[in-house]
């Protein structure tokens, strides 16, 4: 059995690192057009989403809740300049959904930007919005995102989900690093980032219940911490999470003393901002996996369904 | 150097014998496979050792067909059984494979083959009886495959015992495999991901006998894939062919 203390500790440490390195969540206003201004928006959106999950699950200690609140304030006030950078991002690339996706978790936490709401109303009505060429899991993400914004998802979420790799429940031994990320994100979109585990279709839940243990074992062995962390999040979204003890022990052991979680194998060295870019995601994932698994673990202790 | 040379000759002999068994499985011509390996002019000791390595699979076509074996083949097989008895400290895997050979020899030596795994009247036989067939001897220690074993270790061990995975086997490993189908299926996924084709093929042998393999595993396609990726090793080919025969019901 996995210790709740161990699982919780991973998240608490990760949050310490994220707060200590909050300056890494930065936009590049003068980004090379070839790279694009929106390139650095994704980390900010992911940070906001993880903080939102942390508030939602309510299992963080007061220290973690306080750090999460301060991180969110930093991202909103400093990085996004109170939302003005979202508008700027949207005006730079009006066809991109990214500024809206980054905006969504902030909006759900009560930080709205009327101009972004108006812009979305304009853009989402365009045929080009649905015509965007994307992979099936991205299409599902856009449908789920539209639903959360209160827009009619096109295609409907269930239809989009059926087209994903996971939705087609392929031979589990064909999974690879890329498809595994598609799997994790399909689960995140379908469950609202772990908020509604019951929204996972029964066949998909049964498929993951059968094969996730083999995948956890595999990526633990390969020391792919970022992917392992996402798969641990998926485990916590299942009707009966395993809270796989070996995977959690390995994941916790990979975490650095300062809370950073290497993405793959060992911690990289070099310029701090480069190191941040490599490990911020795996550290966010560590916080995410921890809060979901802690919540499920406590629910289990209380004998209640998640 | 001599050791390396012997080891290399044994590897070659095992590959060659497995290829011969595969040919026999595919052609239905079951006579003389072992004689060709260990007959006059052959490298006798190495050939017998190769038979010991393949264990009961050296006579797999006869076992699956529940048909009579060529007496000369049986004689060679019997020599391999006697030449390599388990030592007091032999591994459980070695004890089990030797036990399987003893049972195969006893069963194929009988005129009407009543005790052959897969033979008439053995389907669904209570497993407890299997170890007490005349000539089969007492089963080795089944604790080697105890209930609390991880699915990873279970798969590793059962894959090594794949020659015991034949219809109606009824022995302790067969009972364990039947009770832990999902764990074995996870082990198959793991082995394929790790490109351990021999382990994957060995696990697939057991899965081919299980009635409750999850459809999402895609076992039939998995057999083709493992054969395509790992079939240069004729032992892999032997297992995938055997599994396919059992899966399609072509084996009795």
> What share of residues are in beta strands of chain A?
under 5%
Poorly predicted segments of chain A: none
Order of helices and strands of chain B: HHHHHHHHHHHHH
The count of DSSP E runs of length 2 or more, i.e. the number of strands of chain A, is 0
Major sheet summary line of chain B: none
Number of strands of chain B: 0
Instruction: Let me know the average pLDDT of chain B.
Output: 87
State the oligomer.
heterodimer
For the record, the count of structural domains of chain B works out to 1
What is the H/E string of chain A?
HHHHHHHHHHHHHH
CATH architecture of chain A: Alpha/alpha barrel
User: Biggest interface, which chains?
Assistant: A-B, 14 and 19 residues
Number of helices of chain A: 14
Could you tell me the mean pLDDT of chain A?
Answer: 95
Shape descriptor of chain B: globular
Radius of gyration of chain B: 17 Å
Region (Disordered) (chain B): 112-142
Biased composition (Low complexity) (chain B): 123-137
Protein name (chain A): DUF6895 domain-containing protein
Domain DUF6895 (chain A): 13-290
């Amino acid at each position: 059995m996995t210790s709740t203390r161990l699982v919780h500790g991973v998240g608490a440490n990760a949050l310490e690192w994220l707060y200590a390195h909050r300056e890494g969540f930065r936009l590049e206003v003068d980004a090379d057009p070839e790279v694009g201004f929106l390139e650095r928006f994704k980390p900010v959106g992911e940070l906001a989403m993880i903080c939102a999950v942390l508030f939602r699950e309510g299992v963080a200690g007061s220290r973690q809740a306080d750090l999460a609140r301060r991180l969110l304030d930093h991202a909103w006030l400093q990085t996004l300049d109170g939302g003005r950078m979202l508008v700027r991002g949207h005006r730079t690339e009006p066809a991109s959904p990214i500024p809206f996706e980054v905006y969504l978790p902030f909006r759900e936490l009560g930080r709205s930007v009327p101009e972004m709401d108006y812009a979305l109303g304009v853009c989402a009505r365009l045929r080009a919005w649905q015509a965007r060429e994307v992979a099936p899991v991205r299409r599902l993400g856009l449908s789920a995102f539209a639903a959360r914004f209160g827009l009619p998802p096109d295609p409907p979420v269930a239809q989009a989900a059926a087209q994903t790799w996971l939705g087609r429940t392929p031979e589990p031994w064909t999974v690879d690093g890329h498809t595994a990320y598609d799997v994790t994100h399909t689960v995140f979109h379908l469950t609202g980032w772990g908020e509604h585990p019951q929204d996972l279709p029964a066949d998909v839940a049964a498929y993951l219940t059968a094969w996730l243990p083999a995948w956890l074992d595999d990526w633990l062995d390969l020391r792919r911490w970022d992917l392992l962390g996402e798969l641990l999040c998926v485990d916590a979204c299942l009707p009966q999470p395993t809270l796989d003890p070996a995977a959690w022990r390995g994941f916790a052991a990979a975490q650095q003393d300062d809370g950073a979680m290497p993405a793959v194998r060992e911690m990289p060295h070099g310029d701090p901002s480069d190191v941040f870019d490599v490990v911020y995601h795996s550290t966010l994932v560590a916080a995410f996996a921890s809060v979901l698994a802690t919540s499920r673990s406590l629910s289990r202790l209380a004998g209640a369904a998640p | 150097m001599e050791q390396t040379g012997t080891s290399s000759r044994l590897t070659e002999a095992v590959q060659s014998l497995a290829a011969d068994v595969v040919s026999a499985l595919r052609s239905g011509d079951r006579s003389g496979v072992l004689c060709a390996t260990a007959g006059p002019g052959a490298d006798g000791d190495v050939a017998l050792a190769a038979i010991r390595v393949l264990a009961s699979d050296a006579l797999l076509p006869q076992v699956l067909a529940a048909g009579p074996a060529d007496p000369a083949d049986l004689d060679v097989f019997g020599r391999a059984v006697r030449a390599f008895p388990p030592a007091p400290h032999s591994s459980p895997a070695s004890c089990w494979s030797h036990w399987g050979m003893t049972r195969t020899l006893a069963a194929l030596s009988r005129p009407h083959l009543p005790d052959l795994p897969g033979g008439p009247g053995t389907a669904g036989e209570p497993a407890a009886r299997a170890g007490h067939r005349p000539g089969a001897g007492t089963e080795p220690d089944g604790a080697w495959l105890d209930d609390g074993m991880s699915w990873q270790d279970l798969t590793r061990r059962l894959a090594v015992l794949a020659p015991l995975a034949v219809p109606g086997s009824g022995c302790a490993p067969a009972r364990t495999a039947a009770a832990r189908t999902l764990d074995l299926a996870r082990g198959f996924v793991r082995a394929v991901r790790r490109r351990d084709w021999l382990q994957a093929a060995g696990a697939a042998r057991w899965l081919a006998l299980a009635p409750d393999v999850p459809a999402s595993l895609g076992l039939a396609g998995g057999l083709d894939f493992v054969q395509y990726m790992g079939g240069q090793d004729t032992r892999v080919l032997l297992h995938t062919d055997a599994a396919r025969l059992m899966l399609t019901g072509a084996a009795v």
